[in-house]
Amino acid sequence: MVLASLTPSLTSVELQWWLLALLFYGAGDYITTVVAVQRADIVEANPAIRLLLSEQPTPIGFAVVKSTALVICFLGFLSIYESAIAIGIPVMITMLGVLVTAVNLRTLARSSTQLHTSRSADR
Fold first, then answer.
1. Residue 123 belongs to what H/E stretch?
2. Counting CB atoms within 10 angstroms of each CB, which of 26, 52, 91, 122 has the fewest?
C-alpha cells in the first residue's frame, strides 16, 4: 500500500507502451533467444550478455538479466515520469524489442534453412 502511494499512476498510453515493451523486449526477445542458443550453430550476439553469461546463456540466467534490465529501465522512467520525454523509455524499449525479436527470428529461419540443406546433402 505504501509503494502504491509513492509511485505515480501510469496513463493509459504509458501503460500500453510498457505492455508492448514487455511483449517484445521481455517475451519476444527472451523466447527467440532461448530457442536460438539451444542450437549448436547459433551463439548470443550481444557482447554484454556473452560477458555476463556466455555465448549460449541458460534460460534462467537470461531471464534474470532481462528482468533486471527492465526493472532498471522502469525505475529510470519513474525517476523522470513528470517529464515529457519519459514516454520515450518504454517506446525505445519496445522498438529495441521489435528489432531484436525480428533479428532472432531471421537468424532462426536461416539456421533452419541451413540445417535442412545440410541434412539433405548428407542423404
1. none
2. 122
